[in-house]
TrEMBL record:
Keywords: Phosphoprotein. Residues 24-278 form the EAL domain. The chain holds residues 308 to 586 of 586 of the full protein. This is EAL domain-containing protein. It comes from the Bacteria. The lineage of its organism: Bacteria, Bacillati, Cyanobacteriota, Cyanophyceae, Oscillatoriophycideae.
C-alpha cells in the first residue's frame, strides 16, 4: 500500500506499529492533544560551513514531550501525525514557531542565518501549502530568502508534474529547496533531472565511516562533484568524527551537520552557541 509515507520513515514506524500496538494507540491519542497542551518544541541543529567552521544556518527539528513519553522521536510520531491527519496543523505550528524564534535571534545576532524546515509527503500534497507558507512568512515579516524547505525523494513520486509546479512557485517567492536524505530512496538521479533543488543533503548512511569505507568514499566524492556541476550546494548529514569531517573538507563538501559540531538543541542554547562559535 502506498500511503504516501517516505520509505525510511515507514520502516522506522512499522515495527512499533505492528509489535506494540497498544503503545501506538496511546501515542496516537496523545498526539491529538499535543498542540493544545503545548508539548511540542522546536530544536535546532547548526549547519556549518566546512571552510570557515562557522554556523551559516540551522535545521528545525521537532521535539515532543508528553506526560508519559519523554522525547518521542519524530521518526515515530511524524508518520503517525501524517496518518491521522494532524501533520498540516503541526507543520504550520513548526513554521510559525521557527519564524518567531528567528525574529528574536535577528535582534540578538544581526548576521542572518538560513533556516531549514522539514516537510513530509502529506504536507507537501496539501493543495494550499504554498499559500499557507506565504501567509505564515508574511504574518511574521520573515524574508523568504532565508527559508529552505527540506523534502525527501519519496514525496515527489506520486505526481511529479504537480510537484514541479509547486516547487517552482515556492522558488519564485525566494525560498530554497533541499533534497533530504539523498541516496536513501528510489530514482535519486531522476529527481535531479526534473527538479531544481538548491541543496543536496547526503544521507548519513553514506557519511558514516567515510574515511575508512572506500565504497562510501567513492559514492560521496561522486555525489559532491555531480551536485556542484548541477549548481547545488552539498550538506553532509550526521557527521560524528573528525575523520569524517576531514574527508568531506578534502573533497569539497560545502556544509556539514552532525553531533561532532552539535546535536539539535533548544532555541536558548542555540543563541549561546552562536554567540560562542560565530563571534
Ligand atoms: P532529517 O530531516 O533527516 O533530520 C536529521 C536527523 O538526524 C535528526 O533526527 C537529527 O537529530 C539526526 N542527526 C543529526 N546529526 C546526527 C549525527 O551526527 N548522528 C546521528 N546518529 N544522527 C544525527 P530527528 O531529529 O530524530 O528527526 C528525524 C526525522 O524526523 C527528520 O530527519 C525528519 O525527516 C523528521 N522531522 C523532524 N522534525 C520534523 C518536522 O518539523 N516536520 C516534519 N515533517 N518532519 C520532521
Ligand atoms: Mg531534514
Ligand atoms: Mg536528513
Ligand atoms: Mg531523515
Amino acid at each position: 500500500e502506498n500511503n504516501g509515507l517516505g520509505l525510511n520513515q515507514y520502516e522506522v514506524y512499522s515495527p512499533a506499529f505492528h509489535t506494540n500496538n497498544k503503545n501506538e494507540v496511546s501515542l496516537e491519542s496523545k498526539l491529538h492533544d499535543a498542540l493544545e497542551k503545548e508539548e511540542f518544541e522546536v530544536f535546532y541543529q547548526p549547519k556549518v560551513d566546512i571552510k570557515s567552521n562557522k554556523i551559516v544556518g540551522v535545521e528545525a527539528l521537532l521535539r515532543w514531550n508528553n506526560d508519559t513519553h519523554n522525547n518521542v522521536s519524530p521518526a515515530i510520531f511524524i508518520p503517525i501525525a501524517e496518518q491521522i491527519g494532524l501533520i498540516d496543523k503541526i507543520g504550520e505550528w513548526v513554521l510559525n514557531k521557527t519564524c518567531e524564534h528567528f525574529k528574536i535571534l535577528e535582534k540578538k545576532y544581526p548576521k542572518k542565518l538560513e533556516v531549514s524546515v522539514n516537510f513530509s509527503p502529506r504536507q507537501f500534497n496539501d493543495k494550499l501549502l504554498e499559500q499557507k507558507i506565504f501567509k505564515i512568512l508574511a504574518d511574521n515579516y520573515f524574508n523568504p530568502h532565508y527559508l529552505e524547505i527540506e523534502l525527501t525523494e519519496s514525496l515527489l513520486v506520486k505526481n511529479p508534474s504537480l510537484a514541479v509546479k509547486k516547487l517552482n512557485k515556492l522558488k519564485s517567492a525566494g525560498l530554497k529547496i533541499a533534497i533530504d536524505d539523498f541516496g536513501k530512496g528510489y530514482s535519486s538521479l531522476g529527481y535531479l533531472q526534473h527538479f531544481n533543488f538548491d541543496t543536496l543533503k547526503i544521507d548519513r548512511d553514506f557519511i558514516k565511516n567515510i574515511d575508512a569505507n572506500y565504497k562510501n568514499a567513492s559514492i560521496v566524492r561522486c555525489l559532491i562533484q555531480m551536485a556542484h556541476q548541477l549548481n547545488l550546494k552539498v550538506v553532509a548529514e550526521g557527521v560524528e568524527t573528525p575523520g569524517e569531517l576531514n574527508f568531506l573538507a578534502n573533497n569539497d563538501c560545502d556544509f556539514f551537520q552532525g553531533y561532532l559540531f552539535s546535536r539539535p538543541i533548544a532555541f536558548d542554547q542555540l543563541i549561546d552557541l552562536i554567540n560562542l562559535r560565530n563571534s
